[in-house]
Amino acid sequence: xxxxxxxxxxxxxxxxxxxxxxxxxxxxxxxxxxxxxxxxxxxxxxxxxxxxxxxxxxxxxxxxxxxxxxxxxxxxxxxxxxxxxxxxxxxxxxxxxxxxxxxxxxxxxxxxxxxxxxxxxxxxxxxxxxxxxxxxxxxxxxxxxxxxxxxxxxxxxxxxxxxxxxxxxxxxxxxxxxxxxxxxxxxxxxxxxxxxxxxxxxxxxxxxxxxxxxxxxxxxxxxxxxxxxxxxxxxxxxxxxxxxxxxxxxxxxxxxxxxxxxxxxxxxxxxxxxxxxxxxxxxxxxxxxxxxxxxxxxxxxxxxxxxxxxxxxxxxxxxxxxxxxxxxxxxxxxxxxxxxxxxxxxxxxxxxxxxxxxxxxxxxxxxxxxxxxxxxxxxxxxxxxxxxxxxxxxxxxxxxxxxxxxxxxxxxxxxxxxxxxxxxxxxxxxxxxxxxxxxxxxxxxxxxxxxxxxxxxxxxxxxxxxxxxxxxxxxxxxxxxxxxxxxxxxxxxxxxxxxxxxxxxxxxxxxxxxxxxxxxxxxxxxxxxxxxxxxxxxxxxxxxxxxxxxxxxxxxxxxxxxxxxxxxxxxxxxxxxxxxxxxxxxxxxxxxxxxxxxxxxxxxxxxxxxxxxxxxxxxxxxxxxxxxxxxxxxxxxxxxxxxxxxxxxxxxxxxxxxxxxxxxxxxxxxxxxxxxxxxxxxxxxxxxxxxxxxxxxxxxxxxxxxxxxxxxxxxxxxxxxxxxxxxxxxxxxxxxxxxxxxxxxxxxxxxxxxxxxxxxxxxx
Length: 764
Fold this sequence. Notes:
The protein is mostly beta strands. It contains five helices and 42 strands. The strands form four sheets. The chain has a 24-stranded antiparallel barrel. Strands 1, 3, 4, 7, 8, 9, 10, 13, 14 and 15 form a ten-stranded mixed β-sheet that branches. The chain is globular and about 75 Å long. The N and C termini lie far apart (59 Å).
């Protein structure tokens, strides 16, 4: 079955592909013989024109206060949201919603009147930005280049709380960490609620043109009751996997300008660190006091070309990473980028293989970035001088990492050219240079959308790496300069009732992407899968059902099997915003010279019985590997989560990660990680937050080959006061500490930190 989807001859499974020439031959064979329509995008049948609107300009002032009472709104473009596209399929909307749009030379203005038959059931909290996706909310999606490849999303709940998300259609990714500067307000009325938005054109990218422009538009309302209803102004074809291809169009915007489009943000941070150097009996003593000033500059050279730079940037993370248990893991854990400088224009650097991962730029003295789009061409380039070099040493069966006190110059270049209606071809290059160290990567990639339901993605990369002699010797890396290549190709068919997919990866043993995140190398990976989908009608007991399975094969570069896996899975979506996933699998895995036969079950359950309460549970049980001692085991993992809102100001989140691995002779370890997050929101701009993270791991030393602690504990506490006018104009005041314990020592504080940060964004 998988061979049919990939159109791969049986001999391919017995002999992995070799070097680049064979990979090119494979691409040509795939394009020539697969039963897909992969003709040039220009040869596709013409698309039916979408709904067209003309947006009027206004010269009257609009105050963003949540009351749609200015006379400018009476002349605005009025768009009703007539359709429900989820869970219903293009059904009449169950509630009335009107979207109003107008603009002046500097702002796009948007308003919504959202009627509700029972306003008491409106879900509307006060919260920090991007934290109210479970509420009622409205908003718009803007494809400002009208290229059906990327879009800006702006949403507001009835209290005026903002959410903004960047949508990258080419890479099928949404980025909620993207933050723009804009204004909003909302209020609940006896008939429902009203909101207003003012989006500066300086916060958008759009073509540099003196005449009228046409943008893609989706006006949306999310109405969560027994189900989460998605209401919109355009119907949606579920056989078309391209969302942005189905937007309505708005034309106008003649003469718009982002102004001088200059944003200057100075920051000042200060921190005091106390350490207990003689643990556990010594006193906490002042270890350091640091005060740093920094500056970040963002300049919109044109509406579609952005230059940003930073000097002595403050890259401290106010929003801490989600806690993760690192016990019995085969490869390095992933933590997403959260720093604003690198999030600006991050979509320009995306590719099928994660060859650019900016968190590897750990502590830069300075950085500069230029990104933009002109016509069908998009590009991004950044450079930074980093004081610390974080290195990941990947392998086929595990990975290691280290951090060096080594200064490097880091740079990346990405260029992508749009082809036809919705295809693209790109090139990229990265470089990391230091004393006795270098890593360079270059390659190309592409997206070929053969039909409304079919997509083909591919990427080829080549790397050249040199490590310092001491690093190469300590981590068993090649002593001299070494090179290798990486290749990926993936096909997806996403239609209303059927999905199937196939992919192939070939990552060379000596391939390194040190400015990216590829924790595994030296392997080939082949995957094929199929899924059937059923959609519920009104009053059915389900909204969506699906059943499917997939098969995958992983081999090392010598052709030895590392993993062979087959899985069946079932999905259910129903009332109370409930979701059920059940997966059953069997596999054989090779590790450290031993092959293990495994059977397992995965399950995920989620339900929102009321607007104030959300419950979820992820579960895994079955066979696993004890990587520390190379032997079979039985794993039990439970990850429950509870979210509870006490009124509209206080939210409690409790998460837990439980893991137990049993081996012959007893329980190897039992690990618990609990996190409690409590947030009290005074208003849209101000909150206080407490985070408690407790890690408790118990081991049986008699079952380990090497010596281990029988018990280790760690407690992290963080208190934060936050005041935000916008994402860059902020004031933070906080405290954090860490406590540690083991078999002989109860939890004892090891350090504490007092810190504050202030930043102010001048928008010129």
